From TrEMBL:
Residues 127-275 form the N-acetyltransferase domain. Keywords: Transferase. One of its GO terms (molecular function) is N-acetyltransferase activity. This is Putative beta-lysine N-acetyltransferase.
Amino acid sequence: MLNTRGEVSSSSLISVDERNKRLVVNGYTQGTKPSLFSRELIDLAITKELEKIWLWALPRDVPEFLRCGFHIEGNIFCYNYEEFAVSLAYYVFKARGLSDKIQTENDIVYTVRTEPIKQSQSLPIGMELKILDETFARQISQVLTKVFVSYPSPVESSQYIRSLMHNGNIFAGAFSQEKLIGLAAAYPDYLFNRCEMTDCATIAEYRGHSLSERLLGILEDEVQKQGSFILYTLARAQSYGMNRVFYKLGYRYQGRLINNCHIAGSFEDMNLWVR
């Protein structure tokens, strides 16, 4: 639970993310005063030499956060879901909030929505898909580090992958001749009834078989067994392929988080898709 009278960094809902030079705030105690809370978050970010604050806010608190210098970047409104549904950003380092790729990224979203959808072909013989357990942690780490030059989380550590699984996150993998060639993951959040679909990666020579789309379908079935969740993802805004995958699966585009994380060698904008 958040402490709005100092020591905010001790809250389990607040993460000092040095890897991505940001402060991540997944929620706060109902009744928190946004003006006071904003000052504490900004002071913490400055002290930790962070560049961005990423805050999930209650809709009713958004106007006051905006008066404190935050900006709306997206939302996960879906059905009657209105918990911490608005994604806000505050840029301690103002240049972090500027992107010169907005028009290109807008064009990608437009194309994703308007191009005809083709039906996926059958998997080639020798390929199979399945849910992964922690015995695959090392292989998961190897795939992610092979596909991405840099990544927002320490996936180079197989122990980190195991810790994700121990915390209830689910991984699915694609295999060719028993070799892990692609994967995706679901991160259920039981506190806020939302689930991030993430960690989509396919080794280059095995692309073209809709593996991410198929793996996400398997994961969605697994997540539904555990409860009712709002599903969302943050897809690289410059990746036509991943944005197309989520559009095909029925997700709606609901915002863009500017320079949100360091992935594939640089800070990138991330599109928010919700279902």
